[in-house]
Design a protein that fits this description.
Helices cover about 40% and strands about 15% of the residues. With about 400 residues, the chain is of the alpha+beta class. An 8-stranded antiparallel beta sheet has the order 2-1-12-11-10-9-8-7, with helices on both faces. It has a two-stranded antiparallel sheet with strand order 3-6. Strands 4-5 form a two-stranded antiparallel ribbon. A hairpin with a 4-residue loop joins β9 and β10. α1 packs across α3. The N terminus is likely disordered.
Length: about 400
């Protein structure tokens, strides 16, 4: 499919999203939407399925949310190439590192409730925590561990997380690692130290992390499918199985769901459907002020540390001039505006979530394989939105 056709298809989907609020084009947008919406969705479904077919992606689900409205949500492909049962809006996928955003939002909610502060020292809650050199220990704050700026080297003790070690058993081991960075000065992505937010929240609130997930988010937001443990996803009747690529014949083969990262829920242990993620996007867009206000979210997403040197693929998306990490979310700098983004990879699953705050517009896509379609779909989505806006003026 050529670029022109692709632009036409994206433009149709975004006709209401992009033109909303423009008096000159509003009535035309309404007419065009009535006339073309159903046919466009059918065409876009074919486009998306074609994209998955070209990379042999077994299954995916997608949601697009603007303001408080789910503009589009659908499952594609199959849960397993063996059973050929289709993915639907309640099919569960692993979120992997997109789970980090949930932990940071929960922390912000309890910061707002004065249970703790972003500037609190980690040792205030976890006296067993330490760094080498020891003088760095008292410099590490909750903000540092949530923004990957603790001073620890890249992925410190992620290997222990993957082997099933508990966070409690790892905390006292950090003092054995020689740190070359001062806390707050440089970015180095983490899983084990990030998950220290769980015992910190326990000390601050008296509630375990699963209890907080339920009380603050799952029950309050009425998420129907979300869960956070291996047994639940393993026993689910509606789960997208992970698939790995066999390089020899370019086929995706279903593999087993592993128990990795369920010992560090905040770092990578949440499972969810695209219905759950539609609700989550609504929260991130400011539609649940009883939990967190739009004004607080604007502050929450402020950049903390520059990450351009990380050399990840999103740094090469068209228009990206710089990148940062905030609290559980990446911030992509386009010069005149920011977009918010995070990805997750674990056990052959891939999750992508992004927001353009200029238009109060968010997208999430979940895959049951690490296919290359995920590399382009979010920048394409936002590029098409910008192009359509330009055409509306």
């Amino acid at each position: 499919m050529n670029k022109v056709t692709k632009i036409i298809l994206w433009g149709g989907l975004l006709i209401l999203i992009a033109c909303k609020g423009n008096p000159r084009t509003a009535s035309l947008a309404t007419v065009k939407t009535v006339e073309t919406r159903d046919s466009f969705i059918e065409k876009f479904s074919a486009f998306f399925e074609s994209g998955m077919s070209s990379c042999h992606c077994p299954g995916a689900s997608i949601t697009i949310v603007q303001d408080s409205t789910v503009r589009w949500m659908k499952g594609f492909g199959v849960r397993s190439v063996l059973t050929q049962v289709p993915v639907d809006e309640h099919t569960i996928f692993r979120l992997a590192s997109v789970s980090k955003n949930f932990a940071s939002i929960i922390t912000q909610i309890y910061v707002d409730r004065n249970a703790l502060s972003w500037e609190d020292k980690v040792t205030h809650y976890l006296p067993e925590f330490g760094l080498r050199p020891t003088e760095n220990t008292e410099l590490v704050t909750i903000r540092n561990i949530i923004s990957h700026t603790s001073g620890l080297p890249y992925h410190s003790y992620t290997n222990l997380i993957e082997s099933g070690a508990s966070i409690a058993s790892i905390i006292s081991l950090f003092k054995n690692i020689q740190c070359k960075m001062l806390p707050g000065n440089e970015y180095a992505y983490q899983n084990a130290s990030y998950a220290m937010i769980e015992p910190i929240l326990l000390k601050a609130t008296g509630k375990s992390y699963p209890e907080l997930l339920h009380e603050v988010l799952i029950d309050s937001l009425h998420m129907p499918d979300i869960n956070y443990n291996f047994s639940t996803i393993h026993e689910s009747r509606n789960v997208a199985l992970p698939h790995r690529l066999d390089p020899s014949d370019s086929l995706y083969i279903p593999t087993e769901i592993t128990d990795k990262f369920y010992n560090a829920i905040s770092a990578g242990g949440i499972n969810a459907s695209i219905t759950d993620m539609s609700i989550w996007l609504k929260l991130l867009l400011g539609n649940y002020p009883n939990l967190i206000s739009k004004e607080k979210l604007d502050t929450f997403f402020k950049p903390i540390i520059r990450t351009t040197t990380d050399r990840r693929y999103y740094n090469y998306w068209p228009g990206v001039k710089d990148s940062y990490y905030a609290k559980g979310m990446r911030i992509l700098d386009y010069g005149d505006h920011h977009k918010y983004y995070h990805a997750g990879y674990a056990n052959e699953y891939r999750a992508e979530i992004a927001i353009d705050p200029r238009y109060n517009l968010g997208i999430c896509i979940l895959f049951n394989s690490t296919c290359h379609l995920g590399d382009d779909i979010i920048p394409d989505f936002f590029k098409m939105n910008d192009d359509w806006l330009a055409g509306c003026r």
